[in-house]
Amino acid sequence: MEQHLSVISLLIVVTMAFLTPIILHRLKINFIPVVVAEIIIGLIIGKSGFDVVHQDMWLSTLSTLGFIFLMFLSGLEIDFTAFTGRKKRQKLPNGKMEPNSFAVATIIFAGIFVFSLGLSYLFVIAGFIDNAFLMTLIISTISLGVVVPTLKEAQLMKTVIGQIILLVAVIADLVTMVLLAVFVSLNEPKHGNTWLLLILFAAGIVLYFVGKRFKNRTFIETLSTGTVQIGTRAVFTLIIVLVGLSETLGAENILGAFLAGVLVSLLSPNQELVHKLDSFGYGFLIPIFFVMVGVNLDVLSLFSEKKLLLLIPLLLIGLLLSKLVPVYLLKIWYDKKTVFASGFLLTSTLSLVIAAATIGERIGVISEQMKGTLILVAVITSIFTPILFKKLIPKEVAVNKKLPVAFLGANQVTLSLSRELKSGLYDPVLYHLQMDKSEKQIADSLFEIVEIPDYTIDTIAQTQVFQSEIVVISTGNEEQNAALAIRAKENGVPRVIARIESPDIEQSLRDHQIEVFSSFMSTKMLLRALIESPAVINILSNQETGLYEIVMMNSQFDGMTLRKFPFTGDIIFVRIFRDKDSIVPHGDTELQLHDRLIVTGTKEYVDELKRELEFCES
């Protein structure tokens, strides 16, 4: 009978985790992160609501694994290329020079931590909590899980202000996670000495170099397909090894999981592997964890204690002040709306607050009611801060944005193409070897060319190539093209296109999610199309009515049918690609976020539609 009840509780939790995103989509509640909605659903079916789910071995184990995998993915989200970027500073629209992203982010986080420490002592003096260290970690932490998707949706990830916000969140994640491990080692008697944590980090360094050594071996690539999936196996082995080592050394298991995520991020995994890990984590284990957080949260008991009830608004004010005051440093470069929007987004807290509160309650530093209060406040911040950010951040940041495109190698194709792209939504820059005076005079009058001494990786790293949205590599050496393409992808360039004539090199680059073109392939495809579909070639080659791809990023049109779409004009929707599906559009077809729309029409109107769908905020 007990086993039956156990399966029923698991069935309810998994079913509700499955239904939550569907409910959000149908009700068009796009402003609430899915993980927050899962906690709210847990509140409804748990202690605070109908109380139909009861903690047992199944749910406890899966919830713990979900928590571990969440910390792993938190470490995996950290993009370390932001720390090493050598982007040249440019002028902002207001005429001021861009700030140094890393320096400003470091100063802001230092201010956040100091301010949080001061507020923590005020909470201790007021009698709300006894441990100022734990409260400092809770106030100073920032949720990468909220910050990253919000910046992506606002199309700000590649902007300077977006990079500053992201860096502050990354630094906060790293520092608070390490300090949380130190806190546990100092406050729980059964845990080992703090210096034993150095063994864990040393093991991480060793595993990093082992992974780097074997990552690009031929036999590893062979074993990464089919039923073997050696990359996925390696990741789970790494997680278990570091989690086991963490517990053996007396540290929290989540520190080992977080370190595993950091190591995988440093090894620059291909996007297919990251997608698999995201799918497994956010598709199964992590929803169970968040639903169970809500199930175990007894909100009614919090309202029964006046002291805890008073703490909720005071802590919310403290969280806001701890971010808004240090972030005001950005007023030197940006307007007030941008500064306040940044401060509100950095106020979002979730995963690490849940981690700190859970650990604090387990080792007896805080009560179960205090743990519930802290988690409730974290949930509240994750709901309203992204909304305020979207309302305050200036829309022109997205509207006027042009996609930077870097061409490596100037030839007849790239020169001509760069001129055509210049008048549209793109900002193309050609990088070419140093020219003599006569060539330079001709080139400067027609094209924007940046001269470089050579095409080595070190030289390219000194330019803004790796900060571009699209990099096209077309030098005369295909091995050089391949090496530069791989390095560009490792540096986080979203799209890399390389000229490769050799089929062997072409396949290896496609495995790295790099797009490839060649003279032979292009000529063959063109000739076949001329024979089989001459009318299609006329459409593609017509400058006025070509085929264009638009990615739907504006949540304002999410769920809208094409029949009601207000910007049709002379645009015809030819095809909609959604994940792996190819959809023939008709009047009742609903648009969804991240749809790839293939349209035809005049270029001017297509550009206007692109601005509306790709760059406009909701």
TrEMBL record:
Q: Where in the cell is it found?
A: Membrane
The protein's topology relative to the membrane is: Multi-pass membrane protein
State the superkingdom.
Answer: Bacteria
Classification via Pfam families: Na_H_Exchanger, TrkA_C, TrkA_N
Q: Reply yes or no: does the keyword GTP-binding apply.
A: no
Can you supply one Gene Ontology CC term for this chain's record?
membrane
Q: Name one GO molecular function term.
A: antiporter activity
Q: Which residues form the RCK C-terminal domain?
A: 534-615
Q: Which UniProt keywords apply?
A: Antiport, Ion transport, Membrane, Transmembrane, Transmembrane helix, Transport
Q: Which GO terms describe its biological process?
A: potassium ion transport; proton transmembrane transport
Which residue windows are transmembrane per the record?
A: 6-24, 31-50, 62-82, 102-126, 132-152, 164-186, 192-211, 249-268, 280-303, 309-330, 339-360, 372-393
Query: Which InterPro entries does this UniProt record tie to the protein?
Result: Cation/H_exchanger_TM, Na+/solute_symporter_sf, NAD(P)-bd_dom_sf, RCK_C, RCK_C_sf, RCK_N
| Family to which this protein belongs | Belongs to the monovalent cation:proton antiporter 2 (CPA2) transporter (TC 2.A.37) family.
Name under which the protein is recorded? Na(+)/H(+) antiporter
